[in-house]
């Protein structure tokens, strides 16, 4: 979260919901819940593992069964409804991008992924999220060449001990301190660090009730606004 920012319409805080890895619940549960409340989110996809159509089998070389379950067909539909499709690397290499010593291989993970997203979604990705949230000065410099919005701070949403009270408290804190809250969400009802769908619905309702104070927008759009100052 970034302190002391100003937001459109005199709102006191901003929130950008971000989702990593492309589990099927992102398309089937998370996006519809956001839309139900008039919001949109940012979905960071593993481009090299994403299949074209939902009816096709998932890629066989996924390290985790829930990675890249959503197809390009579904991501195009989500983008058409106003959601942002961001870059989460080509293959989500184990250990993160900083472990890759060869520059050509690193650029493949970053640039080829961006090109594939552009080809499939018909819009270049503005935002990037590091696999495992691990980076280095070298990696950041390569990512920043084509991605003006890079997620480097985030609030972990999900897991056994994550509660509605904690989620709502993060929103209250952002409003009180004038911050940009960036939830990082992986699984919904399953998968990695799962977030309960009903908890998420209630949390969105809580935010909707405070919409006069908090700006809910995609990561890329809030980043652009903050860059303009």
List keywords for this structure.
229 residues, alpha/beta, TIM Barrel, 3-stranded parallel β-sheet, 7 helices, globular
Overall description:
This protein has 229 residues and is α/β, with parallel strands linked by helices. It has helices spanning 24-36, 72-80, 103-121, 137-144, 164-177, 197-208, 219-228, and strands spanning 13-15, 18-20, 42-45, 84-87, 127-129, 149-151, 155-157, 180-181, 183-185, 214-216. Strands 4-3-2-9-7 form a 5-stranded parallel β-sheet. α4 links the parallel β5 and β6 (149-151). The relative contact order is 0.22.
User: Quick check: average pLDDT?
Assistant: 96
Low-confidence parts:
none
Q: What number of domains?
A: 1
Return the CATH architecture: Alpha-Beta Barrel
Named CATH topology: TIM Barrel
| Rg, Cα atoms, Å | 17 Å
Report the strand count.
10
The CATH homologous superfamily: Glycoside hydrolase/deacetylase
Shape: globular
Q: What's the helix count? A: 7
Biggest sheet statistics = 5 strands, parallel
Beta-strand share of residues: 5-15%
The neighbouring-strand order within the major sheet is 4-3-2-9-7
- Derived from helix and strand composition plus strand pairing, the structural class reads alpha/beta
């Amino acid at each position: 979260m970034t302190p002391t920012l100003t937001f459109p319409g005199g709102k006191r805080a901003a929130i950008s919901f971000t989702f990593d890895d492309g589990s099927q619940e992102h398309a089937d549960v998370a996006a519809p819940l956001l839309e139900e409340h008039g919001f949109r989110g940012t979905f960071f996809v593993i481009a090299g593992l994403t299949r074209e159509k939902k009816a096709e089998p998932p890629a066989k070389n996924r390290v985790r069964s829930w990675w890249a379950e959503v197809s390009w067909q579904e991501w195009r539909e989500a983008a058409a409804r106003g959601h942002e499709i961001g870059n989460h690397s080509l293959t989500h290499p184990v250990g993160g991008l900083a472990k890759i010593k060869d520059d050509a291989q690193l650029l493949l993970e970053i640039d080829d992924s961006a090109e594939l997203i552009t080809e499939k979604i018909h819009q270049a990705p503005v935002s990037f999220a590091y696999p495992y949230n691990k980076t280095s000065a070298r990696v950041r410099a390569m990512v920043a060449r084509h991605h003006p919005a890079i997620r480097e701070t985030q609030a972990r949403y999900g897991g056994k001990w994550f509660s509605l009270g904690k989620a709502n408290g993060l929103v209250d804190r952002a409003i009180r301190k004038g911050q940009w809250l960036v939830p990082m969400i992986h699984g919904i009802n399953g998968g990695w660090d799962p977030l309960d769908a009903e908890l998420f619905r209630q949390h969105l309702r809580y935010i909707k009730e405070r919409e006069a104070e908090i700006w809910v927008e995609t990561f890329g759009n809030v980043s652009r606004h903050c860059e303009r100052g």
